[in-house]
Design a protein that fits this description.
The protein is of the alpha+beta class. About 45% of the residues lie in helices and about 15% in strands. The structure holds protoporphyrin IX containing FE (HEM). Belongs to the cytochrome P450 family.
Length: about 400
């Protein structure tokens, strides 16, 4: 990795410096399998740096992350939350009508969704999630040696999430679609191309699954189509939002639960705190996604030439917001690399985004994780790491591939 702290080009009429260049590829296998040295380097180089390889700006600092995510007027989401500008010829794809849409268009859709995803609706799922978590925890303890990803996090999410979102999610299809969407958000590298190829046989299935007639009864997906019938959404929005829920809600939650299991297995003191008080399960999850953030980067695009933290930014340029790095910014966090389930970080960390587009499914993710981790803490005496965990390399998702664990009562 080499860094060049030389200015590249000064936009006309600005006396401010431009962000320094950094010649690191965050989408290389090396960085994807361990992004933390890159995060440190990016944060320490400057508040904003320019990745010379891609011609995009990036930030890994907490303060700048908050500013950008809260200012759609200067930093639009409508050019796509991935590295490519989806408005440009050859890059076009149908935008996510919620996430890749600025106010006022976003406000109306989000308002209706907020009513649908009310705390009362979410609470109704609790009983079901708890019952499933109890069955799961018993089975896992019986198995004793498990892969924390396939056998625990993934199996549990694939059991409870389809009923909520309304889309039947067979494992092979669901994993291929998830990998495709998070890889597609990154550059057209080998990971991107291979994931699109692997998902091709399932695209028809996916298209059918997010239609009205496929919705599972009693689900939020069904409620979206009912809202569309009442004229609260324009035609086509319900299906588009269902897609956003499947893409945004499945792999991210699996990753977050996987990271919680990994840290609890690594740190017997934290496990002991959780066992002594299983109501800390929510904190264990929240801290896991601060410590290792699944959705670790999303992009915005400058709407005009502007200034940020003393740097001149060009118009119409992508800016990557590395919330995974902001969540470890020592300017904001004490001892940021320490996993500490007693930290009170809900609403403070950036793992669920911030501002206009902050994650609308966060209560669901929290509820899933909390039920599962609490059920395990109430039954298991120990959780131990039995080998090196492996990361799954995906362009815009930080997640585990294998997590060998021994969980004993
Ligand atoms: C641990 C689990 C999750 C993580 C880490 C996560 C992360 C995020 C992040 C970082 C954003 C903001 C992206 C941006 O600003 O560019 C976001 C937005 C969103 N998430 Fe999540 N998410 C999770 C679970 C879920 C679930 C369970 C659902 C659906 C049921 C969901 C649906 C969405 C949607 C629809 C948005 C867009 C909101 C908007 O634009 O107003 N997410 N999520």
């Amino acid at each position: 990795m080499s860094a060049v702290a030389e200015p590249h080009r000064v936009p006309s009429r600005s006396s401010l410096p431009v962000p320094p260049d950094l010649d690191i590829d965050p989408y290389s296998n090396e960085v994807l399998s361990n992004p933390y040295p890159f995060f440190d380097r990016m944060r320490e180089t400057a508040a904003i740096v320019r990745l010379s390889r891609y011609g995009v700006y990036v930030t890994g600092r907490y303060e700048e992350t908050k500013i950008i995510l809260n200012d759609h007027d200067r930093f639009t989401a409508s050019a796509g939350i991935g590295i490519a500008d989806i408005r440009k010829p050859g890059k076009f794809r149908i935008p996510n009508r919620l996430l890749e849409n600025d106010p006022p268009g976003h406000t109306a859709i989000r308002g209706t969704l907020t009513k649908i995803l009310s705390p009362i609706v979410i609470r109704r799922w609790r009983e079901h999630f708890e019952a499933e978590a109890a069955v799961f925890a018993d089975r896992i303890i019986e198995m004793k040696d498990v892969n924390g990803v396939d056998d625990v996090a993934e199996a549990y999410v694939l059991k409870v999430f389809p009923g909520v979102v309304g889309v039947d999610l067979p494992r092979t299809e669901a994993l291929a679609i998830g990998e495709m969407s998070f890889n597609q958000a990154g550059p057209e590298n080998e990971l991107h191309v291979a994931a699109v190829r692997r998902a091709e046989p399932y695209l028809d299935w996916y298209e059918r699954s997010v239609q009205r007639e496929a919705m599972l009864p009693g689900s939020i997906g069904e409620m979206l189509f009912e809202a569309e019938d009442r004229g609260e959404f324009e035609p086509g929005i319900a299906s588009n939002i269902c897609r956003a829920f499947v893409r945004g809600g499945m792999d991210t939650t699996v990753a977050g639960i996987g990271f919680a299991l990994l840290q609890l297995a690594r740190d017997p003191d934290q496990w002991a705190i959780l066992r002594a008080d299983p109501s800390k399960a929510r904190g264990a999850f929240e801290e896991a996604i601060r410590h290792e953030s699944p959705s670790y980067v999303n992009y915005r695009t400058t709407t005009r030439a502007t200034e940020l933290s003393g740097f001149a930014l060009e118009a119409d340029t992508k800016i990557g917001i590395f919330s995974g790095a902001a969540n470890r910014d020592p300017r904001f966090w004490d001892n940021p690399t320490k996993y500490d389930i007693t930290r009170d970080t809900a609403g403070i960390h950036m793992a669920f985004g911030f501002g206009t587009h902050s994650c609308i499914g966060q209560m669901i993710a929290r509820l899933e994780a909390e039920c599962l981790l609490r059920a395990l803490a109430m039954r298991a005496k120990s959780i131990r790491l039995m080998g090196e965990p492996r990361y799954r390399l995906i362009n815009q998702l930080h997640t585990l591939d294998t997590l060998p664990l021994r969980i004993e009562a």
